[in-house]
Write a structure and sequence with these properties.
Blueprint (H helix, E strand, L loop, with lengths): L13 H7 L4 H6 L11 E8 L5 E7 L5 H15 L5 E9 L8 H6 L8 E7 L2 H9 L4 H6 L7 E6 L6 H4 L1
Antiparallel strand pairs: 1-3, 2-4, 2-5, 3-4
């Protein structure tokens, strides 16, 4: 799941915390089965192109010791990536946890969630284009060369549904 918010402050707002501390009956039933959950609350460091596409690739990693240099190198790779056929967007995110206590939802799952330091989300309309990036300029060796610790935790996703606030009503 990926949610885009108006701003980071939403994550510590009264309405959001009320929802997390009063989960729906369905959430209460399912949450005990969610283990090793990674729930990163992020700020956007770079965003190019679209946030929509049929395919997505995520890379979760940490900077080795020079985050500014890693960020600059990744921004350059993002700019190049979105110009490639089959790629529609790329977004670099850095975890910034809101200053809140453990929620009821987390307690139902058995404790605090994990978080990714940095996440790169690449969106595309051709799966092969994501494969090429993942084995080339976004390979583990390439990421380590520009200052990331490795290996990255990778994920591949296919869009199943999308909704806007108007759709949810």
């Amino acid at each position: 799941m990926l949610y885009e918010l108006r701003d980071h402050a939403v994550l510590s707002s009264g309405d959001y915390l009320a929802r997390l501390n009063a989960p729906t009956p369905w959430s209460t039933k399912l949450m005990p089965h969610h283990r090793n959950m990674v729930r990163s609350q992020n700020e956007v460091l770079e965003s190019r192109g679209s946030a929509m596409g049929r395919y997505a690739m995520t890379l979760r990693f940490s900077p080795a010791d020079r985050p500014e240099e890693l960020g600059a190198a990744l921004k350059a790779r993002i700019a190049q990536a979105v110009s490639e056929p089959g790629i529609s967007g790329a977004h670099l995110l850095r975890h910034r946890a809101p200053d809140i206590g453990q929620t009821r939802e987390q307690a139902i799952r058995g404790g605090a969630d994990g978080a990714a330091d940095w996440t790169l989300v690449v969106i595309g309309y051709e799966s092969g284009a994501l494969d090429a990036l993942g084995s080339g300029p976004l390979s583990d060796a390439s990421l380590e060369d520009i200052g990331a610790t490795g290996p990255a935790t990778r994920g591949r996703y296919v869009l199943s549904a999308s909704a806007t606030p108007v759709d949810i009503g």
